[in-house]
């Protein structure tokens, strides 16, 4: 076995050991267990919404008036909204829309950030400088204002919301991956592989990039939490379109503003759903960070 092969084998074994150690830590961490339970519940509700919801989310099932909106009852657990639709069914279906928006925006942001980070970390020099100046300009704009600007430019709609949230996260992933790749490029196994003549392209794609992705994956878990909150915020501002049949949590909050005095619970239920979904991904992401990064281990 050559020196490069030996170094490659050592690199391949390290993630497995790190993964087993992280799994042991996560199993013993009550914060990770609580976060995972919330995430599993959120995903289960999103996937099973058509079977869990007792009523269609877009059809009226009761009579309401502007001054009299029925509250929770045995028939309608969360009451009815301003159009007579079952609020419990709409909250359940809202989990599906929130999951779709969060996952799609995460994948788009991760793809763009990985591409920029890979270019900067692999080529260095003027490519690194140009990419990092672009990243710095994007990060200089507050995230919510950046998302509002992108969504307004693209036009109101869920597609615009997902692209806007992804655009906010691209520089975060790019800077994180670039920093990890620069740190990995100074590792002993990279120096050994370079010394024995392994092509740089194989070193970058076969070793440096895979060993730099762990912090990016952890950041992706945290990004799902912020994506759900940002999607709700953009929908609350009216940037997710005007289709009343889509039960998105942020839009549900926006629709209840006129009825806070007569039916305040209409804002409580989707608000709590946003809080618990974001809390689950945040707790799980922070626990993953502590388990995988020695600097954060308790």
TrEMBL record:
<dbReference type="InterPro" id="IPR035906">
    <property type="entry name" value="MetI-like_sf"/>
</dbReference>
<keyword id="KW-1133">Transmembrane helix</keyword>
<keyword id="KW-0812">Transmembrane</keyword>
<feature type="transmembrane region" description="Helical">
    <location>
        <begin position="31"/>
        <end position="53"/>
    </location>
</feature>
<keyword id="KW-0472">Membrane</keyword>
<feature type="domain" description="ABC transmembrane type-1">
    <location>
        <begin position="95"/>
        <end position="285"/>
    </location>
</feature>
<feature type="transmembrane region" description="Helical">
    <location>
        <begin position="216"/>
        <end position="239"/>
    </location>
</feature>
<dbReference type="InterPro" id="IPR025966">
    <property type="entry name" value="OppC_N"/>
</dbReference>
<feature type="transmembrane region" description="Helical">
    <location>
        <begin position="97"/>
        <end position="122"/>
    </location>
</feature>
<keyword id="KW-1003">Cell membrane</keyword>
<dbReference type="InterPro" id="IPR000515">
    <property type="entry name" value="MetI-like"/>
</dbReference>
<keyword id="KW-0813">Transport</keyword>
<dbReference type="Pfam" id="PF00528">
    <property type="entry name" value="BPD_transp_1"/>
</dbReference>
<dbReference type="InterPro" id="IPR050366">
    <property type="entry name" value="BP-dependent_transpt_permease"/>
</dbReference>
<protein>
    <submittedName>
        <fullName>ABC transporter permease subunit</fullName>
    </submittedName>
</protein>
<feature type="transmembrane region" description="Helical">
    <location>
        <begin position="259"/>
        <end position="284"/>
    </location>
</feature>
<comment type="similarity">
    <text>Belongs to the binding-protein-dependent transport system permease family.</text>
</comment>
<dbReference type="Pfam" id="PF12911">
    <property type="entry name" value="OppC_N"/>
</dbReference>
């Amino acid at each position: 076995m050559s020196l490069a092969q030996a170094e490659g084998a050592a690199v391949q074994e390290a993630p497995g050991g790190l993964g087993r150690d992280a799994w042991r830590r996560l199993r013993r961490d009550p914060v990770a267990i609580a976060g995972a339970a919330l995430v599993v519940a959120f995903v289960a509700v999103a996937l099973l919404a058509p079977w869990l919801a007792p009523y269609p989310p877009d059809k009226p099932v009761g009579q309401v008036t502007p001054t009299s909106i029925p509250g929770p009852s045995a028939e309608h657990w969360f009451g009815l909204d301003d159009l007579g639709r079952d609020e419990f069914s709409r909250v359940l279906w809202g989990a599906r829309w929130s999951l779709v928006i969060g996952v799609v925006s995460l994948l788009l942001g991760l793809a763009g950030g990985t591409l920029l980070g890979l270019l900067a970390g692999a080529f260095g020099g003027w490519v690194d400088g140009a990419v990092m100046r672009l990243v710095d300009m994007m990060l200089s704009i507050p995230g919510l204002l950046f998302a509002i600007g992108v969504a307004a430019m693209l036009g109101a709609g869920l597609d615009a919301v997902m692209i806007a949230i992804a655009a906010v996260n691209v520089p975060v992933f790019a800077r994180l991956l670039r920093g990890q790749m620069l740190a990995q490029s100074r590792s002993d196994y990279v120096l050994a592989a370079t010394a024995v003549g392994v092509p740089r392209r194989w070193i970058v794609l076969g070793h440096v990039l895979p060993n730099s992705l762990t912090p990016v994956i952890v950041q992706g878990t945290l990004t799902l939490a912020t994506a759900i909150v940002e999607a709700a915020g953009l929908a609350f501002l009216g940037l997710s379109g005007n289709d009343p049949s889509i039960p998105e949590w942020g839009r549900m909050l926006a629709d209840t503003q006129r009825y806070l005095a007569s039916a305040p619970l209409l804002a409580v239920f989707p608000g709590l759903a946003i809080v618990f979904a974001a809390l689950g991904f945040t707790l799980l992401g922070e626990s993953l960070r502590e388990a995988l990064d020695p600097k954060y281990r308790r």
